[in-house]
Protein backbone atom coordinates (compact mmCIF):
# COMPACT_ATOMS: atom_id res chain seq x y z
CA UNK A 1 0.00 0.00 0.00
CA UNK A 2 1.46 3.42 -0.93
CA UNK A 3 2.37 5.80 1.85
CA UNK A 4 -0.27 8.35 2.80
CA UNK A 5 0.96 11.87 1.89
CA UNK A 6 2.15 13.74 4.96
CA UNK A 7 0.69 17.08 5.97
CA UNK A 8 2.96 20.02 6.73
CA UNK A 9 2.95 23.34 8.54
CA UNK A 10 4.82 26.16 6.81
CA UNK A 11 5.91 29.17 8.85
CA UNK A 12 7.24 32.53 7.76
CA UNK A 13 9.69 33.78 10.41
CA UNK A 14 10.06 37.58 10.64
CA UNK A 15 6.88 39.03 12.10
CA UNK A 16 5.29 35.59 12.24
CA UNK A 17 7.35 33.30 14.44
CA UNK A 18 9.52 36.14 15.77
CA UNK A 19 8.59 39.67 16.77
CA UNK A 20 11.76 41.08 15.29
CA UNK A 21 13.08 41.18 11.74
CA UNK A 22 15.97 38.76 12.06
CA UNK A 23 17.85 40.14 9.04
CA UNK A 24 18.14 43.61 10.54
CA UNK A 25 18.62 42.52 14.10
CA UNK A 26 21.46 40.28 12.98
CA UNK A 27 22.94 43.04 10.81
CA UNK A 28 23.11 45.32 13.87
CA UNK A 29 24.90 42.53 15.75
CA UNK A 30 27.27 41.88 12.83
CA UNK A 31 28.32 45.51 12.60
CA UNK A 32 28.58 45.86 16.36
CA UNK A 33 31.03 42.98 16.83
CA UNK A 34 33.19 44.55 14.13
CA UNK A 35 33.19 47.95 15.79
CA UNK A 36 31.08 49.38 12.96
CA UNK A 37 27.71 49.79 14.64
CA UNK A 38 27.62 53.47 13.67
CA UNK A 39 27.06 52.32 10.07
CA UNK A 40 23.81 50.57 10.91
CA UNK A 41 21.53 53.61 10.90
CA UNK A 42 22.75 54.73 7.47
CA UNK A 43 22.28 51.24 6.00
CA UNK A 44 18.83 50.91 7.53
CA UNK A 45 17.83 54.37 6.27
CA UNK A 46 19.09 53.55 2.77
CA UNK A 47 16.88 50.45 2.62
CA UNK A 48 13.93 52.37 4.04
CA UNK A 49 14.44 55.02 1.34
CA UNK A 50 14.27 52.27 -1.28
CA UNK A 51 10.93 51.23 0.22
CA UNK A 52 9.61 54.77 0.07
CA UNK A 53 10.82 55.13 -3.52
CA UNK A 54 8.79 52.09 -4.51
CA UNK A 55 11.53 49.47 -4.81
CA UNK A 56 10.13 45.96 -4.41
CA UNK A 57 11.16 43.62 -1.63
CA UNK A 58 13.40 41.52 -3.89
CA UNK A 59 15.49 44.57 -4.84
CA UNK A 60 15.74 45.63 -1.19
CA UNK A 61 16.77 42.11 -0.23
CA UNK A 62 19.53 42.13 -2.84
CA UNK A 63 20.79 45.46 -1.49
CA UNK A 64 20.81 44.01 2.03
CA UNK A 65 23.01 41.03 1.13
CA UNK A 66 25.57 43.22 -0.60
CA UNK A 67 26.54 44.39 2.91
CA UNK A 68 28.19 41.01 3.54
CA UNK A 69 30.46 41.03 0.49
CA UNK A 70 33.88 39.66 1.42
CA UNK A 71 32.77 38.26 4.79
CA UNK A 72 34.03 34.80 5.74
CA UNK A 73 31.15 32.32 5.70
CA UNK A 74 32.26 30.29 8.73
CA UNK A 75 32.79 33.45 10.79
CA UNK A 76 29.29 34.65 9.95
CA UNK A 77 27.80 31.31 10.95
CA UNK A 78 29.58 31.60 14.31
CA UNK A 79 28.21 35.14 14.70
CA UNK A 80 24.75 33.79 13.96
CA UNK A 81 25.00 31.25 16.76
CA UNK A 82 26.11 33.94 19.22
CA UNK A 83 23.42 36.33 18.05
CA UNK A 84 20.71 33.71 18.52
CA UNK A 85 21.92 32.64 21.97
CA UNK A 86 21.65 36.27 23.03
CA UNK A 87 18.25 36.89 21.45
CA UNK A 88 16.52 33.67 22.47
CA UNK A 89 16.89 34.72 26.09
CA UNK A 90 15.24 38.07 25.41
CA UNK A 91 11.58 38.21 26.55
CA UNK A 92 9.25 38.65 23.62
CA UNK A 93 11.64 37.40 20.93
CA UNK A 94 9.17 34.76 19.80
CA UNK A 95 5.56 35.40 18.90
CA UNK A 96 4.29 32.99 21.54
CA UNK A 97 0.89 32.09 20.00
CA UNK A 98 2.64 31.12 16.76
CA UNK A 99 5.41 29.31 18.62
CA UNK A 100 2.71 27.33 20.42
CA UNK A 101 1.10 26.49 17.07
CA UNK A 102 4.50 25.33 15.79
CA UNK A 103 4.84 23.01 18.78
CA UNK A 104 1.32 21.65 18.30
CA UNK A 105 2.00 20.85 14.64
CA UNK A 106 5.25 19.12 15.53
CA UNK A 107 3.50 17.07 18.21
CA UNK A 108 0.80 16.10 15.70
CA UNK A 109 3.43 14.73 13.33
CA UNK A 110 3.19 17.46 10.70
CA UNK A 111 6.37 18.27 8.81
CA UNK A 112 7.47 21.66 10.19
CA UNK A 113 8.94 23.99 7.60
CA UNK A 114 10.42 27.47 8.07
CA UNK A 115 10.19 29.73 5.00
CA UNK A 116 12.04 33.04 5.11
CA UNK A 117 13.74 35.77 3.12
CA UNK A 118 16.34 35.90 5.87
CA UNK A 119 19.39 33.67 5.58
CA UNK A 120 21.08 30.64 7.07
CA UNK A 121 23.69 32.49 9.15
CA UNK A 122 21.05 33.60 11.63
CA UNK A 123 18.29 31.10 10.89
CA UNK A 124 20.07 27.78 11.26
CA UNK A 125 20.45 28.20 15.05
CA UNK A 126 16.78 29.20 15.29
CA UNK A 127 15.67 26.20 13.22
CA UNK A 128 17.74 23.86 15.36
CA UNK A 129 16.35 25.36 18.57
CA UNK A 130 12.76 24.86 17.42
CA UNK A 131 13.47 21.42 15.98
CA UNK A 132 12.17 22.43 12.55
CA UNK A 133 12.31 19.67 9.94
CA UNK A 134 13.15 21.91 6.98
CA UNK A 135 14.55 25.42 6.52
CA UNK A 136 13.80 27.18 3.23
CA UNK A 137 15.61 30.53 3.20
CA UNK A 138 17.65 32.94 1.12
CA UNK A 139 21.07 31.56 0.18
CA UNK A 140 23.60 34.30 -0.61
CA UNK A 141 26.35 33.36 -3.04
CA UNK A 142 29.60 32.07 -1.51
CA UNK A 143 32.89 31.65 -3.35
CA UNK A 144 36.11 30.38 -1.81
CA UNK A 145 34.46 30.49 1.61
CA UNK A 146 33.39 34.14 1.40
CA UNK A 147 30.14 35.89 0.62
CA UNK A 148 30.26 37.68 -2.73
CA UNK A 149 27.42 40.06 -1.87
CA UNK A 150 25.22 38.53 -4.57
CA UNK A 151 22.16 36.37 -4.20
CA UNK A 152 20.52 34.38 -6.96
CA UNK A 153 16.94 34.18 -5.71
CA UNK A 154 15.86 35.84 -2.47
CA UNK A 155 13.23 33.71 -0.72
CA UNK A 156 10.46 36.27 -1.11
CA UNK A 157 7.02 36.22 -2.69
CA UNK A 158 6.81 33.87 -5.66
CA UNK A 159 10.14 32.28 -4.70
CA UNK A 160 8.60 31.08 -1.42
CA UNK A 161 5.70 29.52 -3.31
CA UNK A 162 8.07 27.81 -5.75
CA UNK A 163 10.20 26.42 -2.92
CA UNK A 164 7.13 25.12 -1.07
CA UNK A 165 5.83 23.49 -4.28
CA UNK A 166 9.18 21.77 -4.91
CA UNK A 167 9.34 20.50 -1.35
CA UNK A 168 5.76 19.23 -1.51
CA UNK A 169 6.46 17.37 -4.75
CA UNK A 170 9.74 15.93 -3.51
CA UNK A 171 8.30 14.73 -0.20
CA UNK A 172 4.83 13.78 -1.43
CA UNK A 173 3.24 16.27 0.93
CA UNK A 174 -0.51 16.80 0.97
CA UNK A 175 -0.94 20.56 0.60
CA UNK A 176 -4.70 20.23 0.92
CA UNK A 177 -4.13 19.00 4.47
CA UNK A 178 -1.40 21.50 5.28
CA UNK A 179 -1.17 24.83 7.08
CA UNK A 180 0.74 28.02 6.30
CA UNK A 181 1.41 30.98 8.61
CA UNK A 182 2.42 34.44 7.40
CA UNK A 183 2.12 38.09 8.38
CA UNK A 184 2.59 40.03 5.13
CA UNK A 185 1.06 40.14 1.66
CA UNK A 186 4.37 38.90 0.27
CA UNK A 187 3.59 35.60 2.07
CA UNK A 188 0.28 35.13 0.26
CA UNK A 189 1.71 33.17 -2.73
CA UNK A 190 2.91 30.28 -0.56
CA UNK A 191 -0.06 30.50 1.81
CA UNK A 192 -2.49 30.09 -1.06
CA UNK A 193 -0.96 26.71 -1.88
CA UNK A 194 -2.46 25.13 1.25
CA UNK A 195 -6.05 24.72 2.36
CA UNK A 196 -5.44 26.06 5.87
CA UNK A 197 -3.69 29.45 5.73
CA UNK A 198 -3.39 31.48 8.92
CA UNK A 199 -2.79 35.25 8.84
CA UNK A 200 -0.67 36.46 11.75
CA UNK A 201 -0.40 39.90 13.29
CA UNK A 202 -1.64 43.35 12.39
CA UNK A 203 -0.59 44.20 8.83
CA UNK A 204 -3.66 45.98 7.35
CA UNK A 205 -3.24 44.58 3.85
CA UNK A 206 -2.86 41.06 5.10
CA UNK A 207 -5.83 41.38 7.45
CA UNK A 208 -8.06 42.61 4.61
CA UNK A 209 -6.89 39.79 2.36
CA UNK A 210 -7.50 37.20 5.07
CA UNK A 211 -10.97 38.48 5.94
CA UNK A 212 -12.02 38.57 2.29
CA UNK A 213 -11.07 34.91 1.90
CA UNK A 214 -12.26 33.63 5.24
CA UNK A 215 -8.79 32.75 6.48
CA UNK A 216 -8.10 32.13 10.13
CA UNK A 217 -6.38 35.06 11.85
CA UNK A 218 -4.00 34.86 14.78
CA UNK A 219 -3.14 37.88 16.85
CA UNK A 220 0.34 38.63 18.10
CA UNK A 221 2.67 41.49 19.05
CA UNK A 222 3.67 43.95 16.37
CA UNK A 223 6.89 43.15 14.52
CA UNK A 224 9.86 45.39 15.35
CA UNK A 225 12.00 46.53 12.41
CA UNK A 226 9.71 45.46 9.56
CA UNK A 227 10.81 46.86 6.20
CA UNK A 228 7.53 47.43 4.33
Walk me through what this model shows:
The protein has 228 residues and is of the alpha/beta class. Helices cover 44% and strands 18% of the residues. The strands form two sheets. The protein has a six-stranded parallel beta sheet, with helices on both faces. The longest helix has 16 residues, at 73-88. The protein is globular.
Looking across the biggest beta sheet, what order are the strands in? 3-2-1-6-7-8
Assign a percent range to the helix content: 40-55%
Name the average pLDDT: 92
Structural class: alpha/beta
Biggest beta sheet attributes? 6 strands, parallel
- β-strand percent reads 15-25%
First-to-last CA distance:
48 Å
> What is the radius of gyration computed over CA atoms, rounded to a whole number of angstroms?
17 Å
Anisotropy-based shape: globular
What are the low-pLDDT stretches, counting only 5+ consecutive residues below 50? none
The overall strand count is 8
Number of helices, counting only DSSP H or I runs of 4 residues or more: 9
SSE pattern, N- to C-terminal:
EHHHHHEHEEEHEHEHE
Characteristics:
228 residues, 44% helix, globular, alpha/beta
Amino acid sequence: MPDVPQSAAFFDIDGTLTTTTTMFDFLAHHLSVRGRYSEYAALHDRLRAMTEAGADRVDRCRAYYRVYAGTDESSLLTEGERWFLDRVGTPGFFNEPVRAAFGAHAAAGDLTVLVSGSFSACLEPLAAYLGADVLLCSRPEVRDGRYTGAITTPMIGAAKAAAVSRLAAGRSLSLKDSYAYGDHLSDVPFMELVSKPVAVGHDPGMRRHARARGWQCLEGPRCRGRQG
